[in-house]
Amino acid sequence: MLRVAVVGSGPSGCYTAQSLVERHPGVRVDVLDRLPAPFGLVRYGVAPDHEKIKSLQGSLRTVLEHDRVRFLGGVGVGGPDGVPVERLRELYHAVVYCVGAAAGRPLGIPGEELPGSWSASEFVSWYSAHPDAADEGFLRDVRSAVVVGVGNVAVDVTRMLMRGAAELHGTDMPQAALEVLTGGGVGEVLMAGRRGATQARFTTKELRELGRLPGVGVSVDPAELALDPGFADLSALPAAQRRNAEVLRDWAAVSPPDTDRTIRLRFFLRPVEVLEADGRVGGVRFERTEPDGRGGVRGAGVFEDVPAQLVLRSVGYLGRPPEGLPSDPVTGMVPHLAGRVLSDGVPVPGEYVAGWIKRGPTGVIGSNRSCAKETVTSLLEDAPALQSRAVPEDPLPGLRAAGADPVAWPGWLAIERAEAELGASLGRNRVKLSDWDALWAAARSQ
To answer: Which residues share a beta bridge with 270?
Structure first.
């Protein structure tokens, strides 16, 4: 029997477990997660109003209910409170780390540490009910916000800031976040990119959603589109970029409707300082950029101050692998060869990676499937050598001896029931539990 631990129960972890049981009839897989709830990014990263994407939990659920797969939530790995990496290697023939890359990349500019300046991932975690994300007063006294970045996460947080109660009431968003977000205080969101519109990374589907928000106008400056060399001939652009450019061109061609709330999409603006007012964020100083003729941009030496009480940066992610794994000091990614963890360029026997911690924060959810398959192929090639080492018949007692208190699948089902009951009591559909105590209490109520 081949015993494998998969650390992380998001898409990459579930696809890794699925590939293992499909390709090896004698494998037993334990899917470990620090949280007592599974599904990772799909539960805690996908926007609450994107029900179609969130429905992917159904297929991930099928994996975790497989008779040779065991979900063990509430099991941290590495760090002072987690099971040491070295101990996992003693309990399993192989360990696959699928821990993502959730830390927001900093801007590296003065004032970024001011109250009211956050990574978009921190904001997403709050309204997605991640138990690590307490309400930090994100929207207290906020009238206008700046979102730095022009990818899909930037679009998500912009949309959530502008959504109304009617659109969010049917989601699984925590009640407290729902009430804060729909309180009506934010009247304007500026979403800014340092390069041109044709280089933005949002998808057309996400972009168009901004124009469909009830009571919200979208403003695009035609002069900023004209600066973009790609707009000289839209037909020469790849299809995805052309569709984005067409949407933006159509918005720029008309005056935004007279509404109480506005989204301003700006380009060729680079943040150089977060400005202070009364001890917290008061605005952002941008430098105008211009094409440098080589596909990049350069500073134009012209500056613009934009008032704001909230700044959300969405400029990429950093990996944070468990303590004990090698990692790149800049990106946080784990070095690997076809999924085999490398230490000083040499594969570490029995240690593997898949997902964003392996390849960086790129691709869509489905990209994790092929990534997992590559890693599993390497693992199965190594399996004969890995199985020559004796491991416990059941690793569960060893996990408990290392300080873990695992939540098995029935505990997760109890959390689901508690969330359904909470939603019913509020006159809503299912509402997610958003703090550790509530999750643990529900898991132990089975």
So the answer is: 287
- Cα torsion angle, 16, 19, 20, 21, sign: positive
Helix (H) or strand (E) holding 357: helix 356-359
Enter the tokens of residue 66.
């497989």
Distance from C-alpha of 50 to C-alpha of 57, rounded to nearest angstrom: 12
Q: What are phi and psi of 121, to 5 degrees?
A: -65, -35
Tens digit of pLDDT for each residue in 257-302? 888 899 999 999 999 999 999 999 999 999 999 999 888 999 999 9
Of 111, 159, 118, 158, the closest CA to residue 137 belongs to: 118
Name every residue whose Cβ is closer than 8 Å to that of residue 291 and which is 6 or more positions away in sequence: 196, 227, 228, 229, 297
- Coil vs helix vs strand at 211: coil
What's 146's DSSP letter? E
Closest by CA to 311, choosing from 270, 276, 278, 274, is: 274
Around Cβ 195, how many Cβ atoms within 10 Å?
19
* CA–CA distance, 439 with 446 (Å, rounded to integer): 12
Pull the structure tokens for residue 163.
């959504």
Cα–chain center distance at 165: 24
pTM listed for this prediction: 0.93
**Residue corresponding to tokens 């280089």:** 199
Q: Find the angle CA(139)-CA(107)-CA(197) to the nearest 5 degrees.
A: 85
